[in-house]
Structures are given as structure tokens and as C-alpha cells.
Amino acid sequence: MKIVNIGKLSFSYSSKQKPVIDRFSFDMEKGEIVGILGPSGSGKSTLLRLVAGLESPTGGSIAISGRTVVDDTSFIPPENRGVGMVFQDYALFPHMTVAGNIEFGLHRLSKKERAARLAEMLELVQLSGFEKRYPHELSGGQQQRVALARALAPRPSILLMDEPFSNLDADLKVSIRSELRDILRKAEMTCLFVSHDHQDVDAICDRTVMMVS
Ligand code: ADP
Ligand code: MG
After folding, report:
1. What pLDDT is recorded for position 8?
2. Same domain, 99 and 129
3. How far is CA 5 from CA 9, 14, 61, 171, 195, in A?
4. Closest CA to 38 of 20, 57, 18
5. Do the domain assignments include residue 138?
6. CB of 77 closer than 6 A to ligand 1?
7. Residue 37 beta carbon below 6 angstroms from any ligand 1 atom
8. Torsion of Cα atoms, 91 then 93 then 98 then 103, to 10°
9. For labelling, which of 20, 98, 155, 191 has a CA lying 20 to 30 Å from the CA of 107?
10. Is residue 89 assigned to a domain?
């Protein structure tokens, strides 16, 4: 089953500018991990923002799990798209514990379901026992795993990752690459992974889309 359908998607930040995304069409199968590779400024982040619903396209359409989330006449807001996002700077809430961060998007669940989901996510990213810590008490790699757990906790149908390793040092990057691939496989997650580093993409992704500026 196709889980993402992007049809002739176009976007520009202003009418004077040339389009950042120009009639881009692309499909993803369930469980695929696809890399988006391209130089700085080529529109990678913009593409993820369009899929997430943080920007509205100037043309074209996006469907997720067979449901149109945006086209010329409709727009489903980000919180109803079933999309999880992990950003470059993790963006954890500094005043919340690991548990608080992971449970953040789970207010629709009962208390019991929430506790079970938290335990499942902590186990998935191998941070069981860390739930009472605050982000500043964790290493960069651990913070990144919390961000991943938070994004996966509401069980999104796709996960969008925008240069998630750019704040990690080189050694950590190598180990977290294979960790990430294992976690995504275990969760059977469909993922769009943006990077400017082809080694990240080679290590993690099933196939690659090149963006050109
Ligand atoms: P990438 O993630 O591949 O580095 P971006 O999607 O961030 O690229 O940016 C694509 C292009 O859009 C760049 O030329 C950038 O300068 C421009 N751009 C990005 N964000 C904005 C914005 N908020 N307003 C105007 N132009 C923007
Ligand atoms: Mg970017």
C-alpha cells in the first residue's frame, strides 16, 4: 500500500521568488525509509514542512494513508495528519522530564494506556530507567533518542526527520545511525529522512531522492 502520495507539489515563499519545490511527484510504500539528499538551500526542510502541514503548497497535492491532506480545495492541519517529526535541535521541553516529553502528545489516551505507551517507547529507544531525568542530564545521543520516542509515541503513520544528527559529534553519529535504523525497522515505521550527508542516508535508508537547487 502507498502510504504517501505527493503529486506535482509546488511551493514558493513569495511570488517574486522562483519555486523552492517545482512540480515534485513522489510515492512511498509502508515501512520504507527514504532519504532526501541535497545541498543546503535545495528545499529539503521545506518539503518536510509541506508534508507536516507547517506550510501550504502553491500547487499539487499530498495524501497520507490514502487520505488527501492537502490539495487545491482542502487542508488538514498538522495535528490531524498522523505525522511525527524530529528536528535538528531535538526541541525537547527543557522543564519536562523524559517521561513528560514522551507523554506530551498522548493526552487522548487514558492514564493506564499512557503509562504503557511510555514504557514501550522507553524500551524501544533503550532508555528504561531514565524517565525521571531532565534533558540537560542526558547526553546528545540520549536526547536524540528521547526526541525519537516522543515523535513515535502517538504512533504516527510517517516519521519526518530533518537532519537529526547535525548536532552530534562524528563518533556518536556512527553508532546512532545503526541504532536508528534498528529502531525504525522494529517499529515498522515509514520514514522520510533528510540529510546533506550521503553517509547518513547510505547507512539508514532504503532509497534516496536527490534535491537540486
Ligand atoms: P534545505 O533544508 O535544503 O537547506 P530549505 O527548505 O530550508 O532548504 O530552503 C529552501 C530555499 O527556501 C532556500 O533558498 C531558502 O533560503 C528559502 N527559504 C527557507 N525558508 C524561508 C522562509 N521562511 N522565507 C523565505 N525563504 C525561505
Ligand atoms: Mg534544512
Report:
1. 97
2. yes
3. 10, 25, 8, 36, 21
4. 20
5. yes
6. no
7. no
8. -100
9. 191
10. no
Farthest CA pair distance, the chain: 53
42 lines ligand 1 (CB under 6 A): yes
Residue 163 Cα to ligand 2 midpoint, Å, equals 7
The answer to whether residues 12 and 66 belong to one domain is yes
Note down pLDDT in tens along the chain; length 213 residues: 789 999 999 999 998 889 999 999 999 999 999 999 999 999 999 999 999 999 999 999 999 999 999 999 999 999 999 999 998 776 899 999 999 999 998 989 999 999 999 999 999 999 999 999 999 999 988 998 999 999 999 999 999 999 988 877 888 788 888 889 998 998 899 999 999 899 999 999 999 999 987
Q: Is the CB of 156 inside a 6 Å radius of any atom of ligand 1? A: no
Note whether residue 53 is domain-resident: yes
Of ligand 1's listed atoms, the one at least distance from the Cα of 43 is 6
Q: Quote the pLDDT of residue 165.
A: 85
Our mutation pick for probing the ligand 1 site, out of 45, 47, 166, 195, counting the most ligand atoms within 8 A of Cβ, is: 45
Residues β-bridged to residue 160: 85, 192
| ipTM, 2 dp | 0.98
Q: Do 128 and 168 sit in the same domain of this protein?
A: no
What are the DSSP calls for 87-152, one per residue? -TT----TTS-HHHHHHTT-TTS-HHHHHHHHHHHHHHTT-TT-TT--GGGS-HHHHHHHHHHHHH
At 52, which helix (H) or strand (E)?
helix 44-52
Segments forming the whole domain that contains residue 147: 95-151
